[in-house]
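Aim 2 progress. For Epoxyqueuosine reductase QueH, the working sequence is reproduced below.
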Amino acid sequence: MHKERMMHTAMNKRNYQKELEAKISFHAGRGEVPSLLLHSCCAPCSSYVLEYLSQYFHITVLYYNPNIYPEEEYHHRVLEQQRFIGQFPMKYPVSFIEGTYDTKRFYQMAAGMERLPEGGARCMACYELRLREAAEYAKRLGLSYFTTTLSISPMKDAQKLNEIGERLAKEYGVAYLHSDFKKKNGYLRSVQISKEYGMYRQDYCGCIFSMNQKSVNPLESIQTYEEREER
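Predicted structure tokens for this construct:
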């Protein structure tokens, strides 16, 4: 019975990469280049995403990450994001917006969840905090879609990220672009681009809590993710 349930779940699992490809094909078939608000968690994660999506969208990168600690680290990551956008050749120009570095908002959100492990409720709330800002910017600027680079990480749950995005899309009336950027070797490609451009690659997600739990190697997690997808 348990095995049958697992098979049923696997058969009904959504393939967000295929949904993204279908959306790209739809607009390309109509000769359209839609606009996209892309929330970026960091320059390395955005590298493959920008290489991929800038062929099909007019992109505005929103760097909104009030979770990052310490402040010096935040500014380092912002500059690296701007440097990459300025240097990487893209079919359509990419614009950049730096959000407010409002750490108070993040710590208020995390209150009571400080001791939870990475990947738990605190992280889900943090994803929503940042995706909500992306949805607000997309609506304010009148853009076609919003999405985030976060799903490229093998340590981030694409299903939960997309569920948050879908819910916010209904709330704000702005379309969410489904994604699972770790598919098609997206994470490994981001590592390759980062090396080619001499990019700073941090060894923790960003917040003080992840800094204290930075023992997991994303490259090792890739194998676990791929094994799970094959089942």
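The chain has ten helices and five strands. This observation will guide construct design in the next reporting period.
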